[in-house]
Amino acid sequence: MEILSAEFVISNAEASKCPDSNLPEYAFIGRSNVGKSSLINMLTKRKGLAMTSATPGKTMLINHFIVNDNWYLVDLPGYGYARRGKAGQEGIRTLIEDYILEREQMTNLFLLIDSRLEPQKIDMEFMEWLGENGVPFAIIFTKADKLTSGKLKDNINRYVRQLRDQWEELPPYFISSSENKLGRMDILDYIENINNS
Ligand code: GTP
Ligand code: MG
To answer: What is the tally of structural domains in the chain?
Structure first.
């Protein structure tokens, strides 16, 4: 799919205030600093469209971006950032969960996982929660440029093995780098296929 236009629409602190629209939306979730906002910029080829930072906890709200005037990309705050404190983390968690459960237009969630790390408990638990709630999702392994190809393959294989132990059916997965645009076309084609189905 070609990106003809991509524009920021609105930021919200409540799921119920998101745009009044029936267009399909694709949301990005994962631990703080995993690269959600950077991936949105990479996919749209718009540097600075979504705000990124080397410090975790940058995205605090639900951010809608409209693409090609007919679907949304949604940047969500990350979970699991310890320095937010317990109350802060719970607030973010509620915001994320309300959005995912209440937003009927949310067509597919992309769960981002840092390809450098071994499977993290917080991500596994989040995936279980998605399964329990019947939320359609795909996995994106991020920051692939930070690993050698051998190490990347090892890490993905290890992850997939663990997922196979837990899931009857493996969720679709992609490997990405916002530095060198790895995975861009695959992810956009995946979205296009769902939009056209
Ligand atoms: P929060 O909004 O805090 O939840 O973080 P986020 O998941 O939106 O992460 P963000 O996109 O802000 O990126 C965090 C840091 O990782 C930034 O310093 C990015 O430049 C860096 N980063 C993101 N993606 C990649 C990638 O594919 N490769 C490399 N090398 N760095 C990346
Ligand atoms: Mg962000």
So the answer is: 1
